[in-house]
From TrEMBL:
GO terms for molecular function: DNA-binding transcription factor activity; sequence-specific DNA binding. Keywords: DNA-binding, Transcription, Transcription regulation. This is AraC family transcriptional regulator. InterPro entries: Homeodomain-like_sf (IPR009057), HTH_AraC (IPR018060), HTH_AraC-typ_CS (IPR018062), Tscrpt_reg_AraC-type_HTH (IPR020449), Tscrpt_reg_HTH_AraC_N (IPR009594).
Amino acid sequence: MNNNKVLLNTPELKKENQLLSLIENQTKFNLTNCEFSIYETHKAAFDIKLHFDTIAFTAMLQGKKWMKLEHKTNYFEYLPGESVLVAPGETMVIDFPEADETPSQCISLSLNPEFIEDSLNYLNYNLPKVDETSQWNIQLDEYFLFNNKSLASATNNIMRIAMDDNSQKDIMADFALKELLIRLMQTQARSMVEKNIAKNKSRMGFVVDYIKKNLHQKLSIDSIAKLAYVSKSNFFKMFKDELGTSPNEFILQERINRAKELLASQNSIKETAYQTGFSDANYFNRVFKQLVGVTPKNFQNKMAFFE
């Protein structure tokens, strides 16, 4: 389980007498460049198929389901805080084993292909990436994602607009969809570099790999930018474009992620601080609590309890 994934806002479930179907009941909102749907299932069911003709962004709100992409994956658990990108012409095959006790609710955004193409062309022409090996592009193979704050915020925004009774909603939705596309691509890029898919294929892949291997020592933005053969200002722009975060924020989060692994392995707090580049254990304690919500000691005790 990814403890960093962010949950989306959840509309109130419908009463069963308000549903046309107890299985994948669809409430649809049509916009100029997308079709937004809320699906609810209140009854256990298996082998339910949901087909999308155009690219679709889906996200779980509550409950859970087991699903696969018919010609692409094996079954996997789909939970709140997670999103799945469905390629054009793809079919979801879904099981709802627990829906009798815990109804499931998810959303889908079926996107207009021309709108996506126009948005990507605009970004690549007017806001090209610093890394010449990389372009703004949606990766259909990077389909399973954990929602971060930025992606969750953009998704919540388009949900709010779609369900609102406003005569200007189509205009507002177009702006919101463009943000969602950017946040989706940045989330995909972050996921890919974390899996080392981009390693040795781009400046960003090299930079992330270097950071991960050197968390135990002081990391200078100036020196990393030089290693990547890019100016400091372009280095910051490259990070923001690709991952939606600053290099300093990325390094700090990577240090904390590594600290969690070390603490879970019962390393001492002092040694964990040293191994993740913190020269002061007290400062490490403060930063860890700020980002994780508990002290390193409490986190370690919690991990030991669940073993």
